[in-house]
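Morning!

This is the sequence you dropped in the shared folder:
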Amino acid sequence: MTRYLLVVNFEGGVIETPMEEWKPEEVTAHLDYYRALHRELVDSGELVESEVLAPPNLAKIVTSDGTAPVVTDGPFQEFKEWLAGYQIVDVESEERAIEIAAKISAVPGPDGVALQQPIQVREVMNHAPSNAAEMDAFLQA
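The structure's back. Tokens below.
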């Protein structure tokens, strides 16, 4: 089994209409779809973790020179897309991770049309590189 991170960015996909303008039943169908997929992945034992994240206006950017943190509060207007949430799945193959990502991408929007949100699929490494040679090999992969 291999773990994959499925990253959901807050982008409209092929739908330009902001969710605030959707009909109530469209929002309900959207959320029901996510709940059903969540249940399916829990029941199959593939879901490791799933979280929805607060919007960027509640985010903080932290930098440090090793002495004291410097904290910058949102909003960050330059963000055209932002991380909305993620799932970590433990699956038999990359193909299965892609299949799950496709289901997430197909969440319905207005008029039941699939949003086609881009979902980033990233394998979770079993261990981080521990020396320069491993880091070089990792970066070349």
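Headline: Helices lie at 24-44, 94-105, 132-140.

More detail when I'm at my desk.
O.
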